[in-house]
Amino acid sequence: MAKHIQGREEAMVRQVARLPESPRNHCTPILDLILAPDSEGGSIMIMPFFLPAHQPLFETVGELLEFFRQMFEGVQFMHEHRFAHGDCTLENFAMSSAEMYPHGFFPFHHEKSRSFRRNISPHGTRTSSWPRYYIIDFDRSCHFPFEQSEPARNDRIATQRTPGRNPFPHDVHYLGQILKNRFLEVRYMAFVSLHAYVMV
């Protein structure tokens, strides 16, 4: 996957890329950063080929819990290194695709083959081959040096979302909102299969 980044997001991506390797680091792997043509500026970020974190649907409660375990772990790891994501929405989490689609799929259409000529189905489930989840999109992220003792502030955080502008509790608040609004309340259960919903 490739994404054009520039300005603040490019600066944050370059800092995130320097985070130490760890099983708890769920920031998207950056395979390469290529300078964009002069007319565009910025860089082209090369990432692995991901699936949206919620597609295909979660089949069991255990699959959903594992997703949240990894996401809380990843955000905690960022916070320990004084990075705040700033936009922890469901759309900014991704899932490795090799486990469920070892032969690939057409971009943005995981139900189609790479040639787009035939329909395909996942090769197993999350439970049979646990995927790894990743945090993506750092255009609202911020970093605060360890020596900064005053309360952290991020002016890009809208005050109507959460009280104050401290980005660290903001991240945790939004993770909780994903769980509450997108999975626990019935009207948002579109991302969970009927089987998993019955188990809840």
From TrEMBL:
Protein name: Protein kinase domain-containing protein
Source organism of this protein record: Cylindrobasidium torrendii FP15055 ss-10
InterPro entries: Kinase-like_dom_sf (IPR011009)
Tree of life domain: Eukaryota
